[in-house]
Amino acid sequence: MSDDRWTEGPEVSSGSVDPIPGAASDDAETLRERQRLAQLEMMDHWIGGVLTEQRRTRRWKLFFRLMTLAIVLAALFTTFYSLFWDSSDVTAPTQRHLGIVNVSGVIASDSPANAERVIRGLNRAWEAESAAAVVLHINSPGGSPVQSQRIYAEIMRLREQGDKPIIAVIEDIGASGAYYIAAAADEIVASPVSLVGSIGVIYAGFGFEEAIGRIGVERRVVTAGENKAFLDPFQPLDEEAEAFWQGVLNQTHRQFIDDVRAGRGERLSDSPDVFSGLVWSGEQSMELGLIDQLGSLEQLSRERVGNTDWVDYTPSLDAFERLTRRFAQLAAEVLGVSSPNTPLRF
Q: Which NCBIfam families match (predicted)?
């Protein structure tokens, strides 16, 4: 032990050891000062966070205000452009051409393929002196019987005047109400693989009367008229109501058949399948007399005017109308309230 250098030297008592520097100064006043400084630091940090959040909020408010202003300005510009600069009349070229009227998509009063728009296009193309023919450019699965009948009647009216031919050209599909429209034309042209026909009437619905009982929900319907709610999906459809509704469909189908026969005349085949609701290819339709020629819009244009020259006379939808229409459709789909204006469909 005597050789241990750590134990060598004079013994020092514990009372003679100097205290830790600064330890004695850590009195109550110093602690309070430290607490105050810590609180101030926390306060500064909190205030900085609040200011940052306020700046972020102001930036978002400014962004949304600018977006709102941009939308308003775009709407105003579109409105003034359509009123003062965008003429609703197409300036027809002097050379001979085909006057095109598009029937695209579902035929309905609230869709681009509505009767008012198509009829306006028909008359504009009919009145164009340099238009060698009026061409209904159809790509539609059908739709509203009323809208289809309105267009059909207008085509027949123009056709009776006999000033220029009205020709229907079917692209991918010209079925049901779309074929109803095409039947009024002087001629119908389709591709060999186009879908044509579907001369029938359909009503589709659901019956939830058992499901609603299983989940314990009571259906409350109050009507004036004993048959007012006969198509309510939560009530059974009895035989009498079903027979009545079938009579409505049969009568509508008969009107469809009569108008197709009036438009096509003796060109139609006598096959009973023609009016059965079946859809046919272009080649099959040719054999059944549903169409007159296999071809395309380009081929028709070369035959009629010597080149592929045509002008679209379909009234345009302005940008704001397209935007609002699309927004309304999306809102209806999200809310689950999208439905046709009529339960019957061609």
A: SppA_dom
> Please, which pLDDT band fits residue 286 given cuts at 50, 70 and 90?
very high
- Amino acid identity for residue 87 in this structure: S
| pLDDT 10s digits, 6-33 | 455 555 454 444 454 554 455 778 888 8
- Rounded to the nearest angstrom, the gap between the alpha carbon of residue 283 and the centroid of all alpha carbons in its chain is 32
281 Cβ contact list (under 8 Å, min separation 6): 192, 193, 194, 195, 196
Token duo for residue 334: 């999200």
Long-range contacts of 7-10 (CB under 8 A, 24+ apart): none
Amino acid at 59: R
Inter-residue contact 314 to 102 (CB < 8 Å)? yes
Are 82 and 116 in contact by the 8 Å Cβ rule? The answer is no
β-strands 97-104, 187-190: how paired?
Answer: unpaired
Residue 258 burial by Cβ neighbours in a 10 Å radius (0-12, 13-18, 19+): exposed
Contact (CB, 8 A) for 135 and 167: yes
Distance of CA 1 to the CA centre of its chain: 99
For the chain, what's the residue count? 346
pLDDT interval class at 321 (50, 70, 90):
low
Nearest 10 degrees: Cα torsion 118, 122, 124, 127: -170
